[in-house]
Amino acid sequence: MAGYEDPQKPNQTQLGYQGQGYQQDGYQQPQQVYQQQGYQQQGYDQGQGYQQQGGYQQGGYQQVAQNSPGGGYGSAQGEYQQYANQQAPILVGVPMYPDCPNDTLKTKFISQGYKDIWAAVIFIAVVLVTIVWGFVNVGKFKSDFESHEYSIDGNLTYKLGKYLPGAAFTSLALVCVMLALMRLFPRVFIVLANLIVVIVNVAAAIYGFAKVDAGVGIMFVILGLLHALWLYLVRRRIPLAGALLANSVGVVTKHYGTIITSFLSLVVLAVYGCFFCMMVVPTFQDIDNKNYGNSSQGTNITFGQFLLMCLFLLMFFWSTQVIMNVVHVTTSGTVATWYFAGPNATPPNPSIASLKRALTTSFGSICFGSLLVAILKLLHALAHSAARHRRSFLSCIALCFVSCLERLMEYFNVYAFTHVAIYGSSFVEAAKQTWEMIKNCGITAIINDNLVFPVLNLVMFIDSLAIGVGFGYAADSWMIGIISFCISAVIHLLVLRTVFSGVVTLFVCYAENPQIIASSNPQFNQEMLEGVEALKQSAC
């Protein structure tokens, strides 16, 4: 990386993926070679450096076929990639933490200016159009609302005011308790959550055999057995996933500005949703009135009206993606700051600095990546509509293909935006970095995420179900129960998504620069070394 010279090139990597030295709006290697005595005992080479030269030249990658000293993030068989001739330009910019006494942060967190400005400009224009169009339609929206009579049950209103604040407060308290337990017993949570998945499949199989059809029962039996087999094969990877989960919980709860940002994103989304409804509803009401007034046209829409509908959907998908990804980039930047600085040297309010960068220099990159997912979501909606109305084999195949592509892009973007947060890259540069990481340690990333996913999802579902049933029973109202369940699910989602962002960020940081935490965070370093050591015995 910039500002880091070493006469030797790296010949081994702890995770099968050595940091490439990307010199974007983010991190730079400190001007030293990290040498920790414990690495040789664990089978790791001492930290090797990069020889820095002007200009960026991609010399290609050299495949090394030998046993990985760390068990290999990329493969349990020990094969790993070695990066060769990776050279990047000297980083020049403004430090994000100029007043921080930590020299490492001053050299790593560098702002090089705005990225992907065109995407940010277009997105801001889209938001302005939504706001202006919504204001123009306020009169129509208000008159239509007043033209209908709405009756509200006074008893239900009383119960809503009485029970829903309690449901929200209980949800916050419960999620805090679950975070504390996850911090203390991460491996237990991972094992229990995945075992519950197996149990649910077995229960569904029993119900299928008894009440539905033998084919349904057989399908769930196969799913349960496959998940149990998978859990057995990856059991050696649980310590690593547990270390990432526990430390992610610790960081986001200590620097709770990430959680506050997540809740603020809900407010922003609600405000935007109001303007979007004021823009869309009166517009399509006018279109319906014109279409019904034209007897020859009937209720069919014109091609121009179809394009307008697609444009509205794209605007909505894009805006929601940007809002969610700003939270992810903010959380990733905060966790990366903690990783490179250490828990005792982290500058004050890193979440504010990360949010500032997410909304300024990295905002264009967020808009660019979010636009790609929004386009795929639009195609998914169109394919779903076609499959529902035409019911043809080809439309179902198209829907399946677009759905898979959409999910892959969403998953890819999680890691791409993590690189944006860490290095301040443009989206294209971050995508290249992510692709190189996937080629070298993508299997471990996928397995790690699939170990953590059930924990977060089941915590959200079980807590929300308990709150929904409890408050619904107390209020003697199924409506109160459903609303309480939804409130709890939203609160858990807002909190737990920051935890997942932290898990991804810690994985990327450790995969690219494992040596730095040997001195800055010895406890976390020891946990990760134990996790990587366990990978040597992993079956997959």
What does this protein structure show overall?
The protein has 540 residues and is an all-alpha fold. The chain has helices spanning 37-42, 103-108, 117-136, 138-146, 154-184, 186-212, 214-233, 238-254, 257-293, 303-341, 350-358, 363-390, 393-423, 427-475, 478-512, 517-520, 522-535; strands at residues 57-58, 61-64, 80-83, 86-87, 94-95, 110-111. The strands form 3 sheets. It has a two-stranded antiparallel sheet. A two-stranded antiparallel ribbon has the order 2-3. Strands 5-6 form a two-stranded antiparallel sheet. Helix 3 packs across helix 12, helix 4 packs across helix 9 (257-293) and helix 14 (427-475) runs antiparallel to helix 15. Mean pLDDT is 79; it is low at 1-91.
Tell me the structural class: mainly alpha
What proportion of the residues is helical, as a percent range?
over 70%
Instruction: Compute the CA-based radius of gyration.
Output: 26 Å
Q: What's the number of extended β-strand segments?
A: 6
Approximately what portion of the residues adopt beta-strand conformation?
under 5%
Cα shape: globular
Q: Biggest sheet: strands, sense, closure?
A: 2 strands, antiparallel
Sequence stretches where pLDDT stays below 50 over 5 or more residues: 1-91
Give the terminus-to-terminus CA distance.
32 Å
Helix count, per DSSP? 17
N-to-C SSE string, H for helix and E for strand: HEEEEEHEHHHHHHHHHHHHHHH
Averaging pLDDT over every residue, what do you get? Answer: 79
The strand order across the widest sheet is 1-4
